[in-house]
Amino acid sequence: MKHRVHFELAAITPHDALEQEHLRGALAWVDSGAPLFRVDKPATPPKHLVSYFALVADDHVLLVDHRNAGLWLPTGGHVEPDEDPRATVVRELKEELGVDIRLDRVGAPKMVTVTRTVGQSCGHVDVSLWYAIAGNRAAPIVFDPTELHDAKWFAFSEIPLRRDPHLQRFLHKLRGIVPIAS
């Protein structure tokens, strides 16, 4: 599975200097032989793999108000031991939003981030692969109230202030905005 994760990372073209740094660090981490998957909640090992996935429709993105993180985030979850990160997208979409999607509809990740989390339960480092999935704003939103306070569509220009620190960079990347030179 380390080879598969390396392959996913290698598919990413960095958008800016920060993403270049995150990509180099993530590849070095995978290639080091360190454990990649969370095996015990909340944070064992203290650095592990996550798949984020944003449902995107036109110039809107579906975000969820995550109970533990206290932020508006794209949906996502920890990659289970030996699970393909794209399979995590399929599993978590079903668990968090009740959306069924086939694995072959999940394309390559669009971005990678390495972030120290500060959730209510325990801080740790997430190495996150960010995927974009075509969404439908007319479809009803059904979310898991045990994990989420709310879920709603936002125009890219109206993203809430309490958000993931990398979300704006991700949306800029999706829109093809020219990155800041490194």
Shape call: globular
CATH-scheme architecture:
Alpha-Beta Complex
Q: Tell me, what is the CATH class?
A: Alpha Beta
From the helix content, strand content and strand pairing, which structural class follows? alpha+beta
Report Rg.
15 Å
Give me the strand/helix succession. HHEEEEHEEEH
Beta strand %: 25-35%
Full CATH superfamily name: Nucleoside Triphosphate Pyrophosphohydrolase
**Count of helices?**
4
Percent helix, as a range, is 25-40%
What is the total tally of β strands?
7
Low-confidence stretches: none
Biggest β-sheet: count, sense, barrel? 7 strands, mixed
Instruction: Write down the CATH topology.
Output: Nucleoside Triphosphate Pyrophosphohydrolase
Compute the separation of the termini in Å: 32 Å
Mean pLDDT: 90
- Tell me the number of structural domains: 1
